[in-house]
Amino acid sequence: MSKPIYVLNGPNLNLLGVREPHLYGSVTLEQIRGLCEARANAGGREIVFRQSNREGELIDWVQEAREKASAVVINPAGYGHTSIALLDALKAVDVPVVECHLSNISQREPFRHHSYVSLAAQGVIQGLGPLSYELAIDAALRLTGADRVA
Ligand code: DQA
Questions:
Q1: What spatial distance separates the first Cα and last Cα of the chain, rounded to whole Å?
Q2: Where residue 149 falls among pLDDT bands split at 50, 70, 90?
């Protein structure tokens, strides 16, 4: 049995569905979990799906993923723009890392244009709403040699 794909979500993503819906849409994080699960299962993989508002907890999970994950999909949310510590943790991960964002951060405020996490990610998918997550799962499957991709 292959190791699961870790899907990690940063601060405020627990509020998806009610938080700035003009930017992030009306789909909840729980619904995104379902989309990720379906996509991963179709490729023969499980997911571990988590969200935290705390930088240290996200770093602990990235460290856990070093041993337990086949790949990491991460929406670092605001920490992507600020956290060198999260970058350092991701750099210590040997499995593929795919960064995703619901919104297109390149089209938003200048302070969102830079992501530390991108320096450790194999690829970035952004701007497609929940589809960003689904495509990130597909990418993780392909990068880890899953025989079927939805
Ligand atoms: C986000 C974009 C970030 O700039 C922002 O801080 C978020 C969400 C996205 O998914 O579009 O919290 O990561």
A1: 18
A2: low
